[in-house]
């Protein structure tokens, strides 16, 4: 793809081959490039041709015509330059505004990324703490489980001892009841024997008294 300068140079060659004057206006019309490019290419082409062929002095009328053409070309170029400068100024202002917005968005994203990174670090810290607590809790659970198992075994042992003691207490209670019953029976038997003895003694006394009276 040809550049604007290349198109302008081709147009200048074609104008010269056709016997036409290579002016900035003619180059611009033939190539469709901007006036500034056409002026520069026409000047360079004419300077190069001037070095190749010794041209006679330019007539004053031609100079006046050239001056008019130059003024017109300069005016057109200046107008085009001002229009382009205004357009580029607007584009630059728009780009600057967009750049400011992008910069603000980037700053916001960086701040969000920083906060997100901080939250990730905090989450990792909490996870590490939770894992440490879980490990400690697991140790405590194992210890408590062992202690509970020991307590359960001790309780089972104590329960067995209590059952045995209760059985012995029941046996002792039963033996005591039996002995108490035997004692009660012995006491009743003793009371009966005592009653019998008292009666026998009374009878003996009753028998012994008359005998005493018959003696001198």
Chain-averaged pLDDT: 82
Q: Please tell me how large the radius of gyration is.
A: 69 Å
The secondary-structure element order is HHHH
> What is the chains' assembly state?
single chain
Query: Mind summarizing the main beta sheet?
Result: none
- Portion of residues in helices? over 70%
Query: Total number of helical segments?
Result: 4
How many β strands by DSSP? 0
Distance, first to last CA: 188 Å
The proportion of residues in beta strands is under 5%
The chain-level structural class is mainly alpha
* Uncertain residue segments: none
The coarse silhouette is rod-shaped
Tell me what the structure shows:
This protein has 216 residues and is mainly alpha-helical. The protein has a domain at 1-55. It contains four helices and no strands. It has helices at residues 4-17, 24-31, 35-52, 60-214. α2 packs across α3. The longest helix is centred in the middle third of the chain and has 155 residues, at 60-214. The chain is rod-shaped and about 205 Å long. The termini are far apart. The relative contact order is 0.03. The mean pLDDT is 82.
List the helices and strands and how they pair.
Blueprint: H1 4-17, H2 24-31, H3 35-52, H4 60-214
Helix pairs in contact: 1-2, 1-3, 2-3
Provide tags for this entry.
rod-shaped, mainly alpha, 216 residues
Q: What's the gist of this structure?
A:
The chain is mainly α and 216 residues long. It has 4 helices and no strands.
